[in-house]
Specification:
Number of helices: 3
Strand content: 25-35%
Radius of gyration: 17 Å
Structural class: alpha+beta
Helix content: 25-40%
Strand order of the largest sheet: 1-2-3
CATH superfamily of the largest domain: K homology (KH) domain
Order of helices and strands: EEEHEEHHE
CATH class of the largest domain: Alpha Beta
Distance between the termini: 41 Å
CATH topology of the largest domain: GMP Synthetase, Chain A, domain 3
Largest sheet: 3 strands, antiparallel
CATH architecture of the largest domain: 2-Layer Sandwich
Number of strands: 6
Shape: globular
């Protein structure tokens, strides 16, 4: 891979209950385990950050593909859900992802083709492929 950009971040404190910040200072967040995992929920958590990053990255890939295909991506959106859970047999913890796509200006068949192409070029999709389950749903398309 030819590196085009490198993001740098530091997590400190108690891991999920601490602080994360980027070297350039543009992101500086308090981390807190969610209530569902026994935390106080008074900060963000790694899964939320991953969800935001995956949604933004996939939407960017989708818009790139859409421009090449001359598709109307007005009001398009990508929502990401990142699931955290215990692996079978107590082998640690794992993640799964869901992407929900809205392409209100695109017919269903064209939307499916655009989403498939975006899934092939999105860096987050490439990083997760074969490592975690990623379910993709197209929720909204042109009538």
């Amino acid at each position: 891979m030819k590196t085009l950009y490198t993001a740098e971040a530091l997590a400190s404190g108690e891991g999920r209950d601490g602080n994360a910040r980027t070297r350039d200072g543009k992101l500086n967040v308090t981390l807190a385990s969610p209530v569902e995992l026994g935390g106080n929920g008074e900060g963000t958590n790694p899964e939320q950050l991953f969800a935001a990053g995956y949604a933004a990255c996939f939407h960017s890939a989708l818009r790139l593909v859409g421009r090449k295909e001359r598709a109307d991506l007005t009001d398009s959106a990508v929502a990401a859900k990142i699931h955290f859970g215990a692996l079978p047999d107590g082998a640690g913890y794992g993640l799964a992802a869901e992407l929900e796509i809205a392409l209100p200006g695109v017919e269903r068949k064209a939307a499916e083709a655009l989403v498939a192409k975006a899934h092939q070029i999105c860096p987050y999709s490439n990083a997760t492929r074969g490592n975690i389950t990623v379910d993709i749903s197209i929720l909204e398309v042109a009538a």
